[in-house]
Design brief:
Elements: H1 4-10, H2 17-25, E1 30-33, E2 38-40, E3 48-54, E4 57-62, E5 68-74, E6 93-96, E7 100-106, H3 107-116, H4 118-144, H5 147-164, E8 172-174, H6 179-186, H7 190-202, E9 206-209, E10 212-215, H8 218-225
Antiparallel strand pairs: 1-7, 2-6, 3-7, 4-5, 4-6, 8-10, 9-10
Helix pairs in contact: 3-4, 5-7, 5-8, 6-7
Length: 263
């Protein structure tokens, strides 16, 4: 079974067998990390690139009043700090939200993989560009949608991101966030989050039990929050125009849009 990174990248760019082997070779040092532990602190100058292979992590900032604001969620297949090649010092912190498996990848290994395989280089660039696109959509979400729509939009986004890496079953996925962590992500109070989740349940849109979230009607939930997945860029319609010079490419596979399944 391919690792989460390969699964994610192949959703965008067909990879050669040699490129897949190269990506597997990046994951030589994998460690378990407990829930709610810091991986990187603001101001750190990390030597390694961190990759989430399992579990949920987040980017966050601490405000002057001591409150935490979560500015991104990281799921399997996501790099934590791919930008260390250009920006040596971290301007935010990264911590786990659930028990995670994290790979420590030397910066030199990332650089060599990108230089050896044009498809890997493009895929890494795509990861960075999509991170920026998601951040822009989160700004719209917090500034332009009602609390119910904000949370519904986040649930739809997670569904699609997790489905790409095989973490969705029958429209259900692990959802370890507490109400406080949802509040820190959505710019809401705990009370408001509790009320909003109850409203989504009452509408027959979601079911949340034992840290597993099920979307009962994906199309209704998407319509409720006007969810459009284009910012996730899960489909690369131009892949056929490219050819990796590092070796023969794989047989083209279906590159359909990932369906936003129920939880």
């Amino acid at each position: 079974m391919p690792n989460a990174l390969t699964q994610k990248l192949e959703g965008f760019e067909p990879l050669t067998d040699h490129a897949r082997w190269t990506l597997d070779g990046l994951l030589l040092k994998v460690r378990p990390v407990g829930a709610r532990r810091d991986l990187i602190l603001e101001g750190d100058k990390p030597e390694n690139v961190l990759l989430v292979l399992d579990g949920f992590a987040c980017r966050y900032k601490i405000l002057p009043n001591g409150q935490r604001h979560i500015i991104a969620l990281l799921v399997p297949g996501d790099f934590c700090n791919l930008n260390v090649f250009v920006l040596d010092e971290m301007d935010h912190a990264i911590g786990t939200l659930s028990p995670c498996k994290v790979a420590d990848i030397p910066r030199r290994a990332i650089d060599e993989a990108a230089k050896s395989h044009s498809c890997i280089a493009r895929s890494f660039w795509w990861c960075s560009l999509v991170d920026g696109a998601v951040l822009r959509e989160w700004l719209v979400n917090i500034g332009g949608r009602s609390p119910g729509q904000r949370i519904a939009h986040l649930l739809c986004e997670l569904l699609m991101r997790l489905e790409v890496v095989g973490r969705v079953t029958d429209d259900s996925y692990a959802f370890p966030l507490t109400q406080t962590e949802i509040a820190e992500t959505m710019g809401l109070s705990d009370v408001h989050v509790n009320r909003t989740l109850r409203e989504l349940r009452a509408l027959g849109l979601i079911h949340l039990k034992r840290r597993v979230l099920t979307i009962l009607n994906v199309q209704r939930l998407k319509a409720f929050c006007n969810f459009t997945p284009n910012y996730l860029h899960l489909r690369n319609t131009r892949w056929g125009e490219r050819q990796d010079t590092s070796g023969p490419g794989p047989v083209p596979r279906d590159t359909r849009d990932v369906r936003a399944g129920q939880d």
